Amino acid sequence: MPAVAWDALEAGLDGPAIRRLAAFENPTAFQVAEVLPKAKAEMRLTELGPGEAAMRLARLLAAEILAHGEVNLCCAKQFEWLWIKAGFPRELESVGTMNDDIQIDYSIGQTPSEVREWLTERLRALSA
C-alpha cells in the first residue's frame, strides 16, 4: 500500500492520510486498515461491487475483442469465466451465458457465420 500512496503523490494527489500511508515501511494490516479509508477518500477512490466491476471488465474485454477484427466464437468462454469468477452477478448474466446461447444456436441449425454475426452484435452492444 505504501507504493500506491507514492503513486498518488507523484500524480499530484496529496493529503495527510496519503502521506502517512506513503511513510510506512512494511506496515501491518492493522496499520493500513486504520489509515486506508481516509487515504482512499483523499485519492477520490470509490469501491465497486463485484457486479459493477465485472461489467466494467466485460465492456473492456468486448472492446478489445472487437478491436482485433474478426470475432472468434471461443471468446464467449471468457465472458462465462468472468461471470463465474465474479460470483454470477445479475449484471453479467446476459453475456455470461453467451457460450450456452452459441451451443443452442448451433443445435437449431444456425451457421457459424450467423452465430459469429450475432456474437459480434452482442459485443458491440456491450462495448457501446
Write the layout of secondary structure elements.
Elements (H helix, E strand, L loop, with lengths): L1 H9 L5 H8 L5 H14 L7 H18 L8 H10 L7 H4 L1 H10 L4 H16 L1
Overview of the molecule:
With 128 residues, the protein is an all-alpha fold. It contains eight helices and no strands. α1 (2-10) packs across α2 (16-23) and α4 (50-67) packs across α8. The longest helix has 18 residues, at 50-67. The two termini are 34 Å apart. The mean pLDDT is 91.
Shape: elongated
**Major sheet, described briefly?**
none
Q: Give the CA-CA distance, first to last residue.
A: 34 Å
Share of helical residues: 55-70%
Strand content bin: under 5%
- Mean pLDDT across the residues is 91
SS summary, helix count? 8
Order of helices and strands: HHHHHHHH
Annotation, overall tally of beta strands: 0
Taking all Cα atoms into account, the compactness measure Rg is 21 Å
Helix/strand/pairing category: mainly alpha
Domain module tally:
2
Stretches where pLDDT is under 50 for at least 5 consecutive residues are none
